[in-house]
Amino acid sequence: xxxxxxxxxxxxxxxxxxxxxxxxxxxxxxxxxxxxxxxxxxxxxxxxxxxxxxxxxxxxxxxxxxxxxxxxxxxxxxxxxxxxxxxxxxxxxxxxxxxxxxxxxxxxxxxxxxxxxxxxxxxxxxxxxxxxxxxxxxxxxxxxxxxxxxxxxxxxxxxxxxxxxxxxxxxxxxxxxxxxxxxxxxxxxxxxxxxxxxxxxxxxxxxxxxxxxxxxxxxxxxxxxxxxxxxxxxxxxxxxxxxxxxxxxxxxxxxxxxxxxxxxxxxxxxxxxxxxxxxxxxxxxxxxxxxxxxxxxxxxxxxxxxxxxxxxxxxxxxxxxxxxxxxxxxxxxxxxxxxxxxxxxxxxxxxxxxxxxxxxxx
Length: 362
Ligand SMILES: NC(=O)c1ccc[n+]([C@@H]2O[C@H](COP(=O)([O-])OP(=O)(O)OC[C@H]3O[C@@H](n4cnc5c(N)ncnc54)[C@H](O)[C@@H]3O)[C@@H](O)[C@H]2O)c1
Fold this sequence. Notes:
Elements: E1 10-15, H1 21-24, E2 34-40, H2 44-51, E3 58-60, H3 63-67, E4 75-78, H4 85-94, E5 98-101, H5 109-122, E6 126-128, H6 136-146, E7 153-165, H7 172-183, H8 188-205, E8 208-214, E9 218-221, E10 224-226, E11 230-236, E12 241-253, E13 261-269, E14 272-276, E15 289-293, E16 296-300, H9 307-324, H10 333-351
Parallel strand pairs: 1-2, 1-4, 2-3, 4-5, 5-6, 7-12
Antiparallel strand pairs: 7-13, 8-11, 9-10, 11-12, 13-14, 14-15, 15-16
Helix pairs in contact: 4-5, 5-10, 8-10
Bound molecules: nicotinamide-adenine-dinucleotide.
């Protein structure tokens, strides 16, 4: 496709003004690359609340109303419940808008293909944002993996513990569609939050050729089962092996400005290791990145380790991309499809007793 960068600020609209708008908006506020001209949500309350950020923007109850309003739009920031992603993205690409979509892209490959086909037909860009790729401690970890600082990396470990206490308020309406996803076998820990972990795996070490998984189930309330304890392991095409253990400590308090998740990434090299100690929450109160090598531990105390900054930088990257066309999209629709295949390979493996599954065979 021939993409022509914009030689003026991008005219953008937010589609979905719920919980995560509070972080996605950070890439837009004070950004000369963009002019926010539309706000879309069926909720009157949400529209009124977000109008305060963008007094000059017009508000609409649906994307169709925006499309027929005469307001000129170049790109939309799509922040909708996952079940709506595929139809909404196809609709919006059809209006001729570039799309920056929240993760997970969607729940199955048919929907992913529908979106990719729609982008091709409309000659518009579909980006699936992945804010973790913009979290500075993880960016530094990637730089360590790509240099000789700890020697050649052979394996790594990711850990997630979701907790039931702490963090910001999440309205019940934001949970309801997540519970529907859980019933469809796309749990909040392995699929929804897990999307980030699988993305970082591919981003750090490249394509995955083999996945083995053991996905658990734990009742936490009437009709609500979380997809833990779970263990996923995999091998990249370059031979590096990864393992990720996921659990929930429902009564554990986790200090957090956002979701109360305890997370870490630790890569092992021939001469040392490097570990990101926290991300979304304020778990281990050490420097957010530590590197052990040659008998010495180095701690990075001054990285921007506020999780919200990763949203700001992902959003700025997208808007800058539309203005210049420079660099990778992080992620393109095709790269997001690879993340989906990785997750689906894990489900297929777990359903078959943990056998090896090649994501490309899904
Ligand atoms: N990157 C991350 O770390 C992260 C974190 C949380 C959520 N998310 C993702 O962000 C997306 C939104 O999540 P959320 O927590 O903000 O959900 P939410 O339920 O809080 O917000 C969704 C909003 O969409 C609105 N909406 C529903 N149907 C609509 C329609 N047809 N047109 C326009 N608006 C509509 C709802 O009224 C609501 O305000 C999901 O894809 C979720 O997975 C990503």
